[in-house]
Fold these 3 entries.
Entry 1:
Amino acid sequence: MDHVKLVNDPIDIAHIHQLLADEGCGASSVFVGTTRDNFQGKKVLSLAYEAYDSMALKEMNKICSDLRSKWHDLKHIVIYHRLGTVPVCEASVVIAASSPHRSEALESVSFAIDQLKTRVPIWKKEIYEGDNNGEWKENKESIRPKKSKSGFNYAACPCKVEESHDVPRTLVQIRVNDAELTKRLECFVNRKRDEINSQNVVDFKSSFVSSDKDLSDSCARTQSTIIKQEQSNCHLKVRRVNNRCGPQQMEMRPNYELELNKLMGSRDGQTDPTKEMRKSLPNSRLQAIESYMGLTTDNEENIFSRIKRVENRLLQLESISPEYKHFTKREPSSMEAAPPKKIRKKSYSVQELSAFIQKIKNVSEFI
Amino acid sequence: MNADGPVVNVHVLFFAKSRELANTPRSTVDVPTEITATELLDHLVSKFGLTSIRDNLILAHNESYIDNLSDRILFKEGDELAVIPPLSGG
């Protein structure tokens, strides 16, 4: 049953519980709104309610029927509102509902108090300490007039879409969800990457790779191509790096040594690799080292072998004696052929020593 | 308000601040049988001195709120209007 009332006396909570009671109900929910003694720091001396009675009751009944349509199992609903002066800390409104299970009772009461504050024509005036006029309160949930401040009647205007401002026509609006957007961005990034890679290949590829080879598996760094092994019946693809520049490809680069020597040598712009040029090359530094070490110089030879020979010589001499350099002979062949023998310590027997001492004695006798 | 049609006399109720400004809880007013809500509001505001709270007022006709101020309202003799400032129940 719906119990809706505007009262002028203190609300009797016990009576309301009686109204809610029912054998089939396991739950009742009661909301009590009480008056506060302060608002925004001001002390409330007294407050009073007034209502548009007939319409207030009508709206409160509408709330009850709303509740019943949303929560079917509600048994009893009570909405009591007190009017006139209400002393501080007393109940001004009580909303209650009972139902078999608690969720309906709890939710419906919460909904009902919100609705009451929005729709029911009741007003409260508060009188504050030090202010004789008092103030009519306003619920933030209260219904408000819908028109704009300017009073402009939008409904009377024909609808016209403004296209000429803000958005440039070159822009397109795409409405997609996050997953789609991420996917599109990813595709774009990948495509751009591939584009850059293929551009790199075109920019950096070496001239000796035939241009009609398939470059899809190539990037600018490896220049790899697919070459099928000759006389191979295998249908597996063999990928071999066709790198003509590395030191492992020496046999394919007969002029490699020459080119390397060119790198080591002068940068005076002479590009003609003749013997004459080589002679005048200031590999003179290496020549100087070699002659000092007592080695033969041969400008024809690979520069690395020459350096290696020098290193070997150094190691050898160091192993002999650390002060070798003061005794270096300038005939390399003889030096190489007969390295100085190491002095070996000889151990003498007792008889040899005796004989030796005897000899000395004999010699000293002659002196 | 243009008196280009039949006019009826209706009751007007004032509440809260509007009652203080109008200085009376109820009165009567002549209205055409058909009028837009905006015009009605303007008429009431000017007649009863409610200009200061005009933008916050809602009207109720026969205990039903007039939600849109562009609505057309049809009056009969003896209808009840109410001037409703923002609510503060609960």
Note: The longest strand of chain A covers residues 42-51.
Entry 2:
Amino acid sequence: MLPLGPTREERFESEALPHMGNLLGTARRLTGSRKSAEDLVQETMLRGWRAFDQFATGTNCKGWLFRILFNLLSKQRQKTRARPPTVSLDEHCEHHELSAEAALPARLSPDEMFAALDLLPIEHRSVLILSIVEGFTCQEIADLQEIPIGTVMSRISRARANLRQILTRRTEITPLVSPPTLPAAKDTVEGRP
Amino acid sequence: MNCSELKNILPLHSSGELPSGTRTECEDHLKTCAACAQIVAGERQLDDLMRGAFAAQSLELSPLRTRVRAKIAAAKNPGLLIRWRAPGANPLRWLSLAAACLALLSVGAIYVTSQRSETRLYAAAITDHIDDAVKKVEKQGWRTSPEEIKAFALEQFGTDAFLANLAPADFRLNRVRMCNLKGNRFAHFVFEAGGREVSFFVQSRAGELSGPRVEIAGGQPIFAHASEGYEVAGFQSGKLTVLIVTVFTRPENLRLAREAARRLS
């Protein structure tokens, strides 16, 4: 008798579900609210489940799921873009030259870091999180966000410089853009229903 | 490699994507350039702070995981949806499939036929209303006096009690005659209201009325149909089937039917 391989459910449970924490952590910082982030991750996982037959076992499941998440996020942003006039992000983001003159604080609370991150345009914030926190290479980010690798590199450099500038001169810097980038930020108080 | 070149490829350097030759050139430059080395060290510090913040944030995953699993389970078992399984070579499965298709087609045909039949009935009522109440085509058999109408009701329905409840109190009953609507015998009562005539086609309840149902009144459905600018509303009480034809709007016509259904129930 031939040994039976893992079922689709078992494969999804072992290969896809473990990445839910990473997806949620990133989504939380990109959507502006816990509820929107959870909804986005839930939809990502459901789409992943429906298309799981197309995913080749052994390849980059995390990257595949992040790609689904960014596609959904992009569609949500397209819907909201039609309503309020928004700032053109790349043009309005100050470009601070790479500099090591100002020292970063030795310790930062997560809230302080997130408050600073939220001041970055979403395009910059997302590449920074994908690169630094999630460990994706520039090429992988380019693939999952469907942008040229040069754009990824440029955004990472500018995001790093701006984040550094915000963290070192927090009191002097005015917000570059409004932090909430998606609607439905009704439950913005972390940890409360 | 100079400082400017290094700055351009720093993201690739940090992520370890540089080819070994270029990486060596970077490392060599960093050994000799304190400014660039300081930038790289600063970047590493920033990255560490960011990773630390993300690692320290508390994300309660358990409810979301439960929700996702439930959604996936629901997607796997979509309730009433029938999951297709190819019949394969088993002749019994093909026979079952053929029987199911035939049953489905029969039910569909019966439904379509009944809908068409009711539509024809409603259209016939409109035609009769136009002939009798609008064009005033001369026809035999009208009963016009209150006595004759009462006698007609007793003769056809065994009671005249429904006459007072058929139309609103301010409608005046003008005349009645028997008519044939596509093979169905109905009593055609013509009332006058506000200078316009309104038709009530009444039959002792035999079968079930059907058609495009629009609402429920007094536990009974009300059906509606419109053509040539006229509205038909049909309903059934315990003993009667009634079709009301007017030139009123649908809400007005439905209100007439709703109130009549309530009075007759």
Note: Residues 91-134 of chain B form the longest helix (44 residues).
Entry 3:
Amino acid sequence: MKINEKHLVSFATGNSPADKEGFLSKRGEVNKSFQKRWFALKGNLLFYFEKRGDRDPIGVIILEGCTVELAENTEAYTFELVFQGAGSRTYVLAAETQEEMENWMKAIACGGYDYMKLMVMELQKQLDEINAARRLSAATNVPAVTANLLDLDIKSQGQTRFNPFDNTEQKSSGDVDAFGAVPFNSNSQKQCEFKELHEKYGLYIEQKMAAHTSA
Amino acid sequence: MRTNDSALKQVARQIRVDREGRLLYRGPKESYRERWFRLKGNLLFYCRTTSTGAMLDPDPLGMLVMEQCSIQIEPYGDRPFVFSIQFQGESDKKHFFSGQNQKQCEDWVCALRASSIQNLKSRMEELRSRIKSIQGADPVNDMIVIPKPPNR
């Protein structure tokens, strides 16, 4: 399979800092003895060099679809990177101390793409919940509670049902999304001149686009 | 440089990927050839197509790692609906992709730009600091997310 190797090598040795670096012993595929190598983890790419300071890595292990497991054999501080599929190599790596082994296992597990994606989704969800609570708090003058939105539901009898999507006052400190922009509120009852609308929402759209293209 | 090829082929063969579709592809110093592209995470695989344009063989011909690269729409390209990828460390060498319509082209550009782990990391940091500035506490400290092994 063709891989743009030159780019990978440049990524390995480039200015971007490694998430973790250090010596590990790697067991050979054919020759079952362990060889000490310098490893550098960048995201989900685990590069290894013959020695520290080498310009070009001798190999890369792309950490997609693998599990990190403790090794069953008798070698101390050994762990494995297990890949799926017939003929896929299991990489056996050994650290020098228990702590180093645990640190590497954790770094590799957290370097995976799916894990990072999960974190982003989780944080986005948290931010959405915070914003929803703030919206409610702004409208009902109840202190914002992020935990259970149901707690803020109609506890006071006799009041008409509150619709959180009615925004009679649009405060500037309202919903703030991850780009720091104020979202368009289609429920606004105000009659605006086109010029006003253009200025207000044009900036928001511009910011979104700038964020999009710089991503 | 050695890579874990056979493991990567397994990734490429997965049923569910983030995005896939047919594009004409021209690597540096090559001519356009029709390929089936599959994006999984920050890995862009490409495979051969049949005469009717479907994916011929899930075993990929090649893979591009989507880190440290810049993706541009090429409005003055040699074909309509073209975008390019340029990788850092390979200046003056661009990879060109030609789609079937404007929307497909733009959708791919958006997906590819968002695909790098670098992008995920900066989004994470942005969300983290946003939440911290509102709530005062670092949300990551409270999150106990135990990485689960992928489904076998």
Note: The radius of gyration of chain A is 26 Å.
